[in-house]
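Dock alpha-D-glucopyranose; give full complex structure.
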Amino acid sequence: MTESADTATTPPLPVRTADWWREAVIYQVYPRSFADANGDGMGDLPGVRSRLPYLRDLGVDAVWLSPFYASPQADAGYDVADYRVVDPMFGDLDDAVALMAEAHRHGLRIIVDLVPNHCSDQHEWFQRALREGPHSRLRERFHFRDGKGNQGQEPPNDWESIFGGPAWTRTKNPDGTPGQWYLHLFAAEQPDFNWDHPAVRDEFASILRFWLDLGVDGFRIDVAHGMVKAEGLPDLGSLEQTKLLGANASPSFDQDGVHEIYRSWHTILKEYDGQRIGVAEAWAPTLARTANYVRPDELHQAFNFQYLATSWQAGALRTVIDETLDAMREVGAPATWVLSNHDVTRHTTRFANPPGLGTQIRTPGDPELGLRRARAATLLMLALPGSAYVYQGEELGLPDVTDLPDEARQDPAYFRAAGQDGFRDGCRVPIPWTVDGPSYGFGTGGSWLPQPATWAGLSVKAQSGQDGSTLEMYRTALAVRRSHPALGAADNLRWLDSAGDVLIFERTSGAATFTCTVNLTGAAITLPVPGRPLLASAPVQVTAEQAVLPPDTAAWWTTG
Ligand code: GLC
């Protein structure tokens, strides 16, 4: 591929070693939608491998791959039927090993997704549990229960699935009569494991070792706050149904018992050289609860969903940044920052819409405004102390695809919630690499979700070398972040006075000072020049003393 050929001779980046994860920029690859090497319309591991030079040149430190394991794809691979097998649609185990080896040659680390809360209903244990009937010992590895009511016709408790509808599905006995129910916090095709069972714990310790032995640098742990449920699976009663990001405590999530699992995983990760890490996808109700997952003997990072969910407003952002730094300082873990991922409306589109609509939005809003804010939000995020996550395509400024036809949709949440929720397909549309071709260079065989006709100009090809393009802004930002002495993990952020919807902070190291200024208002503002301009999300006018920041613009400055 042309991008690879152009850059094939670039020397590898210097690899950060000591505590590399504390300041890493980690790029999320959604394998279905990144690059399709075999032309079947679905991205695959050889496709990812072919694009590694692009990621190296973008300047990220590590790549997190969403699941590529054997799966019936009821939830795009988050329903795993065999944790040690690569699904043929993505390639095979040799492709995974080759991808890791090549990434390492480029100085990129590889983090894989681990899905321990639930498996696929096609997993061998679950299939046997069904086949063997109510007395099967295999049922103890899941949450099987008799139903309520005189015929067992009511679900065992009142929990709802995160994807909508009841969190329980009734089984049929081997003789065809109605049988027990099983718990699934997500889709019916995703039965929850019972983590009180030692066989489940042993199996996941073995799966961790399987991938660590193959050379992975870490795991992103799916639904890391879900594995342990409150004793006896109590009814919610008058409590609000659990949402992924809510302030309510819940019997199905964030139970204290889950931390024992992470302490045992910490020991396993430590047995391996090279600082292998665990990253929690834990939608805990507060940042202080999130910090519990990254105590010194547990995992290394936890996604900062409170930050992701914060609207484009100076006060709210400053509060969440301070609360994050405080909470993580308590436990000695790095802060993390994230704006987009495969589960939420892309931040370009979130910021294009009025605040308060949540993270599943189906309206395009004002795309120009959204992109302007998204670019500013990126410079703000990449200037903060700690580690940052970039979701594929955000470096191109891609909007969410809000007008996907209903028949193209695949998100199980869309179907379980009868089209009222579950718009995650919009952020999963394959990304454009070239200005033409059947799928803008994604592959030769089209694309599993339709791409908008307007994406040529957003492609990697169109933006590469274009001054001021979103892609070049990311490249420059990541290069500055890597080289500026005051940036990185150190908890050295100091707010400077600013009025109204404006954020200014400084980070220093020795004589070097880095300043980030963000204008979140809809009007230009004038500031005293804080130093030499490094980068801005929109053209800034600078005179000897004053800088004029256009609306919704962030700029980086340096002295020393
Ligand atoms: C996580 C994943 C999401 C998936 C869910 C169930 O939140 O990020 O994509 O649907 O878990 O596995």
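Observed: DSSP finds 15 helices and 21 strands in the chain.
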